[in-house]
């Protein structure tokens, strides 16, 4: 499962059928289920195909080409949000609905 609990990111995916999203570096790629909620109580949004775009993000500058397709306002917000959720290395992924 890939969780989309940030409303702006979730809405972008639902509206556009794809989104760029930051996750920990151990995220698997390929087909998966998009959900929101928690492990014990979640709502399925649909199926997504996940591709790795960038590894080991270290700066907001790296995210600037993708920010308009992330659902968030700017690269700094996207990176801060991801760093708040995880202290591990972070990667950028592309999730496409199918």
Can you offer a commentary on this structure?
- This protein has one domain: Hypothetical protein (Archaeosine Trna-guanine Transglycosylase, Chain: A, domain 4).
- The protein contains 2 helices and 5 strands, in the order βαβββαβ.
- The chain has helices at residues 7-16, 75-85; strands at residues 2-3, 18-24, 30-37, 42-54, 90-97.
- A 5-stranded mixed sheet has the order 1-3-4-5-2.
- The longest helix has 11 residues, at 75-85.
- The protein starts with a strand and ends with a strand.
- The mean pLDDT is 90.
Q: Outline of this structure?
A:
This protein has two helices and five strands; from the N terminus they run E-H-E-E-E-H-E.
Overview features:
98 residues; alpha+beta; Archaeosine Trna-guanine Transglycosylase, Chain: A, domain 4; five-stranded mixed beta sheet; 2 helices; 21% helix; globular
Binned strand content: 35-45%
Summed over residues and divided by their number, the pLDDT gives a mean of 90
How many domains would you count in the coordinates?
A: 1
- What is the distance, rounded to the nearest whole angstrom, between the alpha carbons of the first and last residues? 15 Å
**CATH homology-level superfamily:** Hypothetical protein
Provide the CATH topology: Archaeosine Trna-guanine Transglycosylase, Chain: A, domain 4
Q: What would CATH call the architecture?
A: Roll
Helix and strand composition category: alpha+beta
Provide the gyration radius in Å.
Answer: 12 Å
Largest beta-sheet characterization = 5 strands, mixed
- Poorly predicted regions: none
Sheet with the most strands: spatial strand order: 1-3-4-5-2
